Amino acid sequence: MDKINGSKIIKYLFFSLSALFLFSGCKRKKETVTLSIWADRGNSALIEKRLEEFKEKFGKNVDFNFTIIEQDSFATGDSIIRNPAAAADIFTFADDQFEALCKQNLLLCIDDYSDEVIKNTGGKDSPAIQSATKNGKLYAFPTIAGNGYFLYYNSKYLSKNDVQTFDRLLAAAKALNKKVGMDIKNGWYLYSFFKGAGLDVYANEDQESNTCNWDSTTSKITGLSVAKAIRKIALDENFVCLDNSAFEKSLETDEVIAAVNGMWNATAVANSWKDGYAACKLPTYTVNGNQVQMCSFTGFKLTGVKSNTSNPRWALAVASWLSNKETQLAIFEKTGECPANIEAADSTKTQASPAAAALAEQAPFASIQRISSCYWEPSWILGVILTSTEKMTDSFLQEKLSIATRDICRNAERNN
Question: Which residues, at least 6 apart from 229, have a Cβ–Cβ distance to it below 8 Å?
Answer without folding.
Answer: 193, 285, 286, 287, 292
